[in-house]
Amino acid sequence: MNNARKHYSMKSNRTNVITFAVLIFAFVLSIGVGKYSLSIEDITKVLKGTHENQMTINVFYMLRLPRSIMVVLAGIGLSMAGSVYQTLFKNPLASPDIIGVTSGANVGAAFSIVFISGNVLSVVFGAFLGGLLALSFVIGIVKFSRTDNVLTYVLAGIVINAISNGILMTIKYFSDPLNEMGAIEYWTMGSFGSITGEKLKIILPFFIIGMVGIFLMRWKIHVLSVSDEEVKTLGISVEQSRYLILLCSTLVVASVVCVTGLISFVGLVPPHIARSILKRNDFNTIVFSGLLGAILMILSDCIARTILPSELPISIITSFIGAPYLAFLVCTKKKI
Amino acid sequence: MRINGISGGYSDGFFISDISFNIEEGKIYALLGLNGSGKTTIIKMICGLIKLKSGNITIGEKDLFTLKEKERAKLISYVPQSGTIVYYTTVVDVVLMGATPYLNMFQTPAQEHREQALECLEILGISELADRNYLDLSEGQKQIVVIARALMQKGTYMLMDEPESSLDLINKNKLMKKIREIIINMNKSCVISMHNPEYALNYCDRILLLKDKKITEIDLKTEDINMVEKKLSEIYGQVKILEYNQKYMLYYSD
């Protein structure tokens, strides 16, 4: 192992350790912060089972713990998926939105709210199926066009986004403006306010399957960062591998947004920061952007639930952080 | 490798048909022809990037296209006009991509592959670039890295699509010299599509001349230079081959 490689792996390990430590700190902070605040002492007592106040125990187990875990999963999932999309589409601006996954999920959720029931489970499954359906349509269009390249995916994504928008407007038109319309709008702004242990249990298997898939196919993701022609001559079946990787990352995204609603910019910004810190784009960078995404998500969520007396939707915060960062990238023309 | 009457083309109507020639081991072939004559199409058909409409390609007794992509990638490697890396990637990681045909579905390269990649860089004389970012390299260096990746695939046949097209004069010569060195030393075979017949004359063993979608083969070792001149003139108009310092130059007259 030569010096430069040693230096990189030391740097990468050091950055991961520091980021992980910050993440743990942020996680504890996230459990403590809120209308009913919990001190470190409270948390340790609850964990030891020696806390006497039932209210504190309930807040910890029923509200904060599932919520904080979901926040971390959302940050890791959306950022890692974003990083995978950016590598796969060879486009630093790619995110789950680009191929219509999020808008599909949006339609699914809205459909459930208006036509099935506002019941949490049905919204979760509606969004989930919507996301997967959008991906299947994209793959279908790509198949029929017989030109499997990155541009076709992006164009198919534009088509799916437009169709989803049309369907969404129709659903909104038929919705009850007092209740359902509000629920749809609220869903599109994202929130961790309604996370429960139950919901977490429902989505966890899908999230894990997607993540394991991404992990197993990490080398293929790396190779798919070059042109399709090169990939083919390197012995990889491009279409099959791309479907599988997209399916896994969509599974991760859908499993997150179906319970949280749409969260903007978290799939886009952390991968950029990760690349500019590590100066690499390999699987380490994808994992690192997941950790950064989790930190960003925790901080945004803490702000969302403390800045005003009532809780703010999460996308408001992430947009105010993400958009200026994107503008900064554009203005400085930083290498990405 | 025997290329037997292959035909194929693009959906926009460009079609090339009934192309046949053989590729022998240890030889470098220059694929020459004017713009739009179908050089790239032929290279891509052999690499499996354009589907054959008819004909076949065999290596020994094996039909190339009955093999899986992975197996083909162990026999044939492709060097595009320029590599398409978008993000920060180290040179050694680019070369490591060449190990992909030897990995299982979920496998990532191991230390032994990394050592092989470093060896490939050493063979091409660019070991010092191993940990540099590919995007920071000069065009000439990038092209050599892509050739190192092709070398890593360990295939006998290397197909290169105008690998020197984006290089300056000095780097073009350096690259061609390097390619010749590895093909001869490692007993591989190479087909290079190119624009400049001078490189074909100086660095290749045979010329595949593509005119009106037909191939004429010239063996530079046996063919008389006047005959070569005559054949080249059929494509490029009146040309004269001049010899200077054991190198050939081409004089074009309108």
UniProtKB/TrEMBL annotation, chain A:
<feature type="transmembrane region" description="Helical">
    <location>
        <begin position="241"/>
        <end position="269"/>
    </location>
</feature>
<keyword id="KW-0812">Transmembrane</keyword>
<feature type="transmembrane region" description="Helical">
    <location>
        <begin position="98"/>
        <end position="116"/>
    </location>
</feature>
<feature type="transmembrane region" description="Helical">
    <location>
        <begin position="312"/>
        <end position="331"/>
    </location>
</feature>
<keyword id="KW-1003">Cell membrane</keyword>
<feature type="transmembrane region" description="Helical">
    <location>
        <begin position="281"/>
        <end position="300"/>
    </location>
</feature>
<dbReference type="GO" id="GO:0033214">
    <property type="term" value="P:siderophore-iron import into cell"/>
</dbReference>
<dbReference type="Pfam" id="PF01032">
    <property type="entry name" value="FecCD"/>
</dbReference>
<protein>
    <submittedName>
        <fullName>Iron complex transport system permease protein</fullName>
    </submittedName>
</protein>
<dbReference type="InterPro" id="IPR037294">
    <property type="entry name" value="ABC_BtuC-like"/>
</dbReference>
<feature type="transmembrane region" description="Helical">
    <location>
        <begin position="150"/>
        <end position="171"/>
    </location>
</feature>
<comment type="similarity">
    <text>Belongs to the binding-protein-dependent transport system permease family. FecCD subfamily.</text>
</comment>
<keyword id="KW-1133">Transmembrane helix</keyword>
<feature type="transmembrane region" description="Helical">
    <location>
        <begin position="123"/>
        <end position="144"/>
    </location>
</feature>
<feature type="transmembrane region" description="Helical">
    <location>
        <begin position="17"/>
        <end position="38"/>
    </location>
</feature>
<feature type="transmembrane region" description="Helical">
    <location>
        <begin position="59"/>
        <end position="78"/>
    </location>
</feature>
<keyword id="KW-0813">Transport</keyword>
<dbReference type="GO" id="GO:0022857">
    <property type="term" value="F:transmembrane transporter activity"/>
</dbReference>
<keyword id="KW-0472">Membrane</keyword>
<dbReference type="GO" id="GO:0005886">
    <property type="term" value="C:plasma membrane"/>
</dbReference>
<dbReference type="InterPro" id="IPR000522">
    <property type="entry name" value="ABC_transptr_permease_BtuC"/>
</dbReference>
Automatic annotation (TrEMBL), chain B:
<dbReference type="GO" id="GO:0016887">
    <property type="term" value="F:ATP hydrolysis activity"/>
</dbReference>
<dbReference type="InterPro" id="IPR050153">
    <property type="entry name" value="Metal_Ion_Import_ABC"/>
</dbReference>
<keyword id="KW-0547">Nucleotide-binding</keyword>
<dbReference type="InterPro" id="IPR003439">
    <property type="entry name" value="ABC_transporter-like_ATP-bd"/>
</dbReference>
<keyword id="KW-0067">ATP-binding</keyword>
<protein>
    <submittedName>
        <fullName>Iron complex transport system ATP-binding protein</fullName>
    </submittedName>
</protein>
<feature type="domain" description="ABC transporter">
    <location>
        <begin position="1"/>
        <end position="237"/>
    </location>
</feature>
<dbReference type="GO" id="GO:0005524">
    <property type="term" value="F:ATP binding"/>
</dbReference>
<dbReference type="InterPro" id="IPR003593">
    <property type="entry name" value="AAA+_ATPase"/>
</dbReference>
<dbReference type="Pfam" id="PF00005">
    <property type="entry name" value="ABC_tran"/>
</dbReference>
<keyword id="KW-0813">Transport</keyword>
<dbReference type="InterPro" id="IPR027417">
    <property type="entry name" value="P-loop_NTPase"/>
</dbReference>
